[in-house]
Write a structure and sequence with these properties.
five-stranded mixed beta sheet; about 950 residues
Amino acid sequence: MNKSLKAIALMSAGSFIFSMNSMADGRLEGRISDATSSVYFDGAIVKIKELKLESSSKNGGRFSFNNLPAGDYTLVVDYLGAETVQQLISISDNKTTSEAVRIGDDVSEMDNVIVIGQAAGAANALNKQRAADNFKSIVSADSIGQFPDENVSEALQRVPGVFIERDQGEGRFVGVRGVNPNLNSASINGVNIPAPERDRRSVALDVIPSGLLESLEVTKTITPDMDGDTIGANIEIKSLSAFDRDGMSYKLQAEGNYNDLEEETSPKLAGSFTNVFDVAGGELGVAAAVSWQDRDFGSEVIEGDGEWESDIEDSGVRGVKELQQRDYTVNRKRLGVALNLDWRPNELSEYYMRSLYSHFEDQEFRQRIKYKFDKGDLLNIDSNSALWDEGDMERDFKDRFEEQKITSVVFGGSNIVDDWTLEYNLSYSKASENEPDRRDTGFKQKNISEMGYSSLGSSPRIFASDEAFDASGFELDEVVIENNYTEDVQQGFKLDITRDMYFGENPGYIKFGLKRSEREKTDDVNADIYNDFGDIDDPTMDAFINGNLNYAIGNFGPALNKSAIDALINGQIKGNTALQDEEALAESLVSSARDYNVNEDVTAAYIMSRVDINDWRLVYGVRYEHTDFSAEGYNARLLDGEQAEIVKANYERDYSHFLPSVNVRYRFSDEMIVRAAFSQSISRPSFGDITPSPDKIEIDQEDNELQVEAGNPQLKAYESNNFDLSMEYYPDNGIGAFGAALFYKQIDNFIFNADVSSDANAALYAPGVNFDDIEITQPQNGDEADLYGLELTYTKHFANGLLLQANATFTDSEATLDLGEDPDRNTDIQLPEQADRVGNLVLGYEKGPLSLRVSAAYKSERLMELNYEDANNDLYQDEHMQIDLSAKYEVNENLQFHFNAININDEPFFRYHGSRSFNAQYEEYGPSYVLGVTYRNF
């Protein structure tokens, strides 16, 4: 901590040694609206021509210039989609001049392309992007409303260079420019949000409904006043403010969502309200929004359990030991509430409170069949089919309820005193995940006469003889009951001080600040395993079924019944230690020893400057971050496979980084902007990667197999040198833009998940046992990686009502593994979880009351996991393209009906080992259809 305090003191003191010419004390403030003064515009470029000063409108079209010399000037306002406006202004010493600027045509709201609809959303985003000091991609609230996106993650997939990771067909995590989603940072109203998931650092953005948003900003080149913990991008989520609108506004929305696979219809309700009140001589803005959804859906899955062996059972053919069929039925509830207060006692001061509450519930029921081919004898096999006899089958039922809560509160303000602007905030955020009374119930039948597969590919055709579908042949094998709780708490403060100044005759500022964040993540796991059911007469599965399961991608047979299983567990199993043998007791203790507690405190300071030199803008500076890290967990081992040994494990370390950055913007003409940037940044390992407690230690006594999923608290943070060069062209004949960006990242210490079975010491987890098969996975640091790519974007709104939006990102990488001498595999790979190609295409039409939009989002294949021993068993995620349709009809300026069709091409999710012939996971979700109505007064 002494090192960080010294650095902060040095950087803060250094900000006062610059010589500067003080500016005068007149002030200009204003607001930019449409011709009727009913809609206000952010992102307009505002200039005082004679003084070479430039700013942009924000917070509901507002702009201001402080400390102006007295005199008469020309105010120039430029907004894409409208004619440039110039008007004369007069500035007096010690006075504030107010100006109202109106842009666009004096037409009705529904006929004004910069006010409402697809074109308005595109114009709002493009104007903000053009005005930014650094390279950003922006999604406005209007644009979000034009797509059938249910949450923040799905709304972001339309942004250039962005792709999403899905769970049960819904977007969850966000990747930028082809890289791992863990390499991005996400913040809400300027504050980092903790993650409720036990293994994640970054929050899953599906917990935040899209209806609570005002805008999304994806910042791809950082500045020193931003957190340095990002390599892909910083994702800033801005919720609604009353000052974004004029007077009182409200919006109500109701929807019904039909899922074709489950044949279920689900409701959704949302609403927002804003108003501005005169309070104590100033203005108090109140904004509130709420969103609620109760959705029923599901998926059908075929997947392998582990790798495909290159020479299975000495056959000379590549085969798999086990395949699984799965069916998921999911009920997912979301409740999001935002309340934001803004108080402006005068034009020089502002105080605010931002709050967000998200409540996410997920009830999942999973039916699963395990075809245990390796328990039998291989009769014949070729490159596309195989047959075993006397194999085993397991059928199980998972009943898992998961509740996630996120609460975020920020108190802050800003004050202007002469040349100085002071900005500050205090924040508190808490995320939690509760998984109470999870139940996994398994039945087993041995020595099934025939089983195998008759074809390979994404969805292998699996078969078995008739007894595999007779429930009376399956005996109760194992019941696991878990109670798990994760909590992630982060609190902090931030202080930013800006001094407006001239560098010679060039306007600019110097800015410096401090930030402190303290984060604690805890995970509490409790598991009880029952496996000896002789005392209750070894129940068979036929007493717990509910007909046959409807399963479109294969023959599933009998479905397990939740109510019957609950009656058995509650009445005879739960808490009955007589049903636990020594092995089950030991594994219960080891499973419960996955608890951990992680503390991470980050202290940061920065100094930066901005200067405008004619058509050049230069933003440069350095940031210092010091990280104190400590972790407590357990080293858990199974002695001789039947006794548990659990020892506390503690790790501590600290590290520091100086992170310089430079952003250069050159206005080549009124239509063209060129940007260049260099920055250094880091990305800290996810909490699941650095926990000292193994996430899984399992021994299959019958097969003499060991499976371990271990953490690695010795992991180093990613370190990256980032280079960017971009060009943006904004034609002056309407709403449109073309952009091209080159980027290069030189990354050290990249992290990848690896199968380390060939190198790991199994005695660390189960001493005294010789295993026939070992599978140990653990995250590792690689050596270095180079990532480079090209990003292209095009947007155009045509006079006939057509809208075209297209973007594509092409990425490549070279990464080197550190595997020591004589490795078993090639050590030159692609950067893990990188997508070579990401793209979006949107075709829209809008004329009068009708609006139509078809959108496609594409992501190429990705390398997800490495196998140290055999590159042919590297895990890949296949390419994915989803097509969506949205239609809206404006009955009048207040009432709108909309229809959305989601995943209309029924795109599945697919992972494979080495080649697409060798399935790792295949999921089908089916399309969904939404019908809704919206009523609003703005």
